[in-house]
Amino acid sequence: MKNQLKKLAKYGVCILGFAAFLLLGGCGEKKDPLEKIKDLEFTVLADENVPEELKAVIEEKKSAPFKVTYQDNGFLYICVGYGEQVSGGYSIAVNALYLTENAIYADTTLLGSDPADPAAGKKNTPSCPYIVIKTEFIDKPVVFN
After folding, report:
1. Which residues, at least 6 apart from 78, have a Cβ–Cβ distance to it below 8 Å?
2. pTM for this one?
3. 112 or 77, greater pLDDT
4. N or C: which end of the chain has fewer CB within 10 A?
């Protein structure tokens, strides 16, 4: 009977040790999939530098708000349009462009026209402001903020 108790105690200790290992193994630091890994380098393109195929898509969509991505020659183009505005002189700021574990996050803001800007003088001329951001191609979805 003593031998059976010793064997049972050994198995009990082994089972407890294995259970503790499993519990502690699950306590590792989990990475937040929304946590920024790094900021991405980018260029805001002038109209003449936008690929022709992408220009055609933008032209079709620019009268309404839109969000488009386009990939070409190892680059990713991220486009955000704000639809038709009542006047000209608007600009768009890129607040952030960064990579997370699961996606690329792009955050832009439409800035109102500056009364001191000569382009803002076209108050009665509607405009369709948009921005085209060029960055390295990364095979992840783009989330627009």
Report:
1. 68, 69, 97, 104, 106, 132, 133, 135, 142
2. 0.74
3. 77
4. N
